[in-house]
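Notes from the 1:1 (GR / supervisor)

We went over the backlog. Supervisor wanted to see one worked example end to end before approving the batch request, so GR pasted a single chain during the call. The sequence is below; no edits were made to it. Supervisor asked that the structure be written out right there so they could see what the output format looks like.
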Amino acid sequence: MRYDQRFHLRRSIRLKGYDYSSPGAYFVTLVTMDRLNLFGEVVGDMMKLSLCGEIAQKVWGQLPHRFLNITLDFSVIMPNHFHGIIVINEAIGRGGSSASHQAADKFDLVDQSVTDNLLKTRPYNGQVSRPYKGKRYALSELIRSLKSDSARRINNIRGTTGCAVWQRNYYERIVRNQRELDALRAYIIDNPRHWMEDKEYKV
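Structure output shown during the call:
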């Protein structure tokens, strides 16, 4: 699949009033402060992670251990930004699927049958999405944890305590259907190959 300019533009489509703790898949992008190439370099078509990049990757991978309502899907760490797909799973005893369906239907955003199927399937990394008992965390809480924990660890090894590692904002997109999920996964896979075309490209 070709490099999709829709995702390359990375425009946030954050919707006022939408419940971002609703079950479903979310595509997120985080960019380093001043677009600093902190996480490594692209060599050929492959991303070679620096120690800071390895830390960011590790913190991302540990998110499901802290937030039991999520499953991680495809992701990629680039020299100065990160893309990933987070699946927020259904919580038992918190309104059930009908409540989450109503949240999505209100905005006419998601093909719910596809979202339900996604929540039941096994993502590429072998994790299984399943209902659970407990708090349902919102996307913003997940991103805040990812940014703060990775920044703290990175600053520790750099001796730059308190310095900003990430830009304050982040970009997110609600994954609406299987076709969009497939396109986003392909976009993530192709990112290193198209690094020099990327708007975040910086020598």
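Supervisor's comment: Helices lie at 5-8, 51-66, 96-106, 112-120, 139-158, 178-190.
Batch request approved.
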